[in-house]
Amino acid sequence: MIMDTILPLYISCKTAVLATVITFFSGIGLAYGISRLKTGQDICDAVIMLPMVLPPTVVGFFLLLLLGKRSSIGQFLLRFDISLVFTWYGAVIAAVIVSLPLMYRTARGAFDQVDINMIYAARTLGSSEWKIFWHIVFPNSRQGILAGTILAFTRALGEFGATIMFAGNIPGITQTMSTAIYAAVQANDYDLAFRWVQVIVAFSFSTIIAMNYWLKRQKK
Amino acid sequence: MRLEVSIKKKLVNFELQCEFTTEDEIFALLGASGCGKSMTLKCIAGIETPDRGFIRLGNTVLFDSEKKINVRPQERHIGYLFQNYALFTNMTVAENIAFTVKGTKAEKKCLADKYIERFSLNGLENSYPDKLSGGQQQRTAFARMLASNAQILLLDEPFSALDEYLKWQMELDLRKELAQYNGSALFVSHNRGEVYRLCSRIAVMNQGRIEAIKMRDSLFRSPDTLMATILSGCKNISTARRVSAHTIYAEEWQMELQTEDIVPPDLTYVGIRAHNIHAVFSTEENAFEFTVHEVIEDIFAFNVIIRRSHSDGKTLYWIVEKKTWERLCMQKKVYLTLPKESLIMVKR
């Protein structure tokens, strides 16, 4: 019984954590790759940023079109008996897509702040591009990267629109805290909705407080 | 180490066309801001790619547009001292110096210690760059450059972002560092003083082109081109034409002047340094009556703006010692001579 009541919290956290891990690496990779592109920067940027400005339902709709059973990717996956729609993996994908812009944008801002002469100097000194990234660019933008990670995490935790479109609202499988609130309100169970609201507000609030505290300490 | 450069690169406002050779000396590129001198250094280091031409260091071709050779900056072994030193802000002094050193921890430490000792950075091994003074940052950057086995040093306006007092200190430091290094260096600056004090040979750059390459003394004695004259610090320049073998007419100043050297037929400008103009009492050769337009008091001298009396010619700039100016009782009209041995004749 207790397990049942905290299930949405567990699913939310599990989804948000995995989504953040994926977003972390892909966001950093995309940010660094695109910041070094010679042409097409604006187009790539716009494509990645789009999910942030589009209504989440539209993002969910696009995901259905792109990965749904009738799409070519969906057809391909079906051959291996894999279906993403209305599964937990679908919830993770939805969370990745909506949180990626936050990670990407903050990481890119942080990379652009790194003194380009530092990178040039490292090159003339003979360091490989890989070493330059991990020993110079990354450490010098860690504050921005951390901020981006926290933002992406809180965004993934609160994800609703794209998730309900693409992964549905199946209790015990894809029902997260935010979709649970929606379901509770639909069922006129305001007490339950209110409890979840308290949990999600407390959770997000403390995450942001912790981030600010950590960033301040870093600056000293 | 011999460095040969012959490159072309299209820039926003002009085309960089740069050609020179330097070997075992401190060679300067002197030019106004935005004339392409930093871009030249960046091309040599491999940070930027020229459109055409070649760059050769010793026996190695670093860049050749025809043979499609473009060695990565990592493999060029060229030391680049950036304007802001570009120290790695997330690393200590010792880590900065040992960053590119290959080998075990012990070997790295040993080499870092050697350079820390050599550049008097003792006690700062574990400090981060933002805790260092400008001079300490410069020494760290220099040590880091040498620790990476640089075969030639490129110094990109190393003092331009500093205030007057610090600048002098750092210049003294750099002199010492260069003396210790004892190899080829290419120094880029817009400051004639720095260039004169630090370098043996000087190339004057204007709008992406090298106008003149001369030994230091010869450049300051007889700068051949207009830009070289301006960059050598000559503040008075007038268009001029030849009248006879030893006579010219300075059109903008509206005066006829006698010269010591034979006037070249294609003379276009004449110049005189502000401190070479002298006050005289009677009419001497090249002496005229001038009207004082403005007097600006400087620390050790007066800067006086003058124009030939009864003319609408271009004004001249005259630097006069305080005592002399006071002796002249700060008159409105003065007799001045432009000594013929101090006239700079410019052909183009």
TrEMBL record, chain A:
One of its GO terms (molecular function) is molybdate ion transmembrane transporter activity. Part of the binding-protein-dependent transport system for molybdenum; probably responsible for the translocation of the substrate across the membrane. Coiled coil: none annotated. This is Molybdenum transport system permease. It is found in: Cell membrane. The keyword Endoplasmic reticulum does not apply. One of its GO terms (cellular component) is plasma membrane. InterPro entries: MetI-like, MetI-like_sf, ModB_ABC.
Automatic annotation (TrEMBL), chain B:
GO terms for molecular function: ATP binding; ATP hydrolysis activity. Signal peptide: none annotated. Residues 1-232 form the ABC transporter domain. Transmembrane segments: none annotated. Keywords: ATP-binding, Nucleotide-binding, Transport. It comes from the Bacteria. The keyword Acetylation does not apply. This is ABC transporter. It comes from Megasphaera cerevisiae DSM 20462. The lineage of its organism: Bacteria, Bacillati, Bacillota, Negativicutes, Veillonellales.
